[in-house]
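Morning, I've got a small favour to ask if you have a moment. You're getting the sequence in one-letter code plus the fold written as tokens. Thanks so much in advance, here it is:

===
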Amino acid sequence: MTTLKMYSYSLLSVALWVISIYLPFVYFSPRGHLLGECIIYAFICCGILISSFLMALGYKLFSLIKKISPLKRDIIFILCISYLYLPISIFTMYQEGMVPSIFSVEMVHLLFNIKLYLLGIAVIPAPFLFVCLLRRTGT
């Protein structure tokens, strides 16, 4: 499969995810007023392009692993893409002062916070659709 075709499938899956899940979620959140500014849509479009490229590149790198079966490789890819944001979220919360110390009990509690894992479940449709589109075309 050509890289351009893989990128287009990635772009389609991320764009559909943003339009159907992310934008309505942000609109009904307390930060929904930010969608009224035109500049935010330029940032969203750039984010879609960059995340689509990174997802296609990640899948290309995962496809180089030949020791595991394609099904296991796809499942690992979907889970890795879905929970890639987790360390970044924890670091951001730590920097904002939400957690006093990295070795505190609150940090351990934060790692197992159900809200963070639910966000990962909300991200799963994008890589899942991407893998389904690739499998359907016979890659």
User: Anything to note?
Assistant: The chain has seven helices and no strands. Residues 3-27 form the longest helix (25 residues). The mean pLDDT is 78.
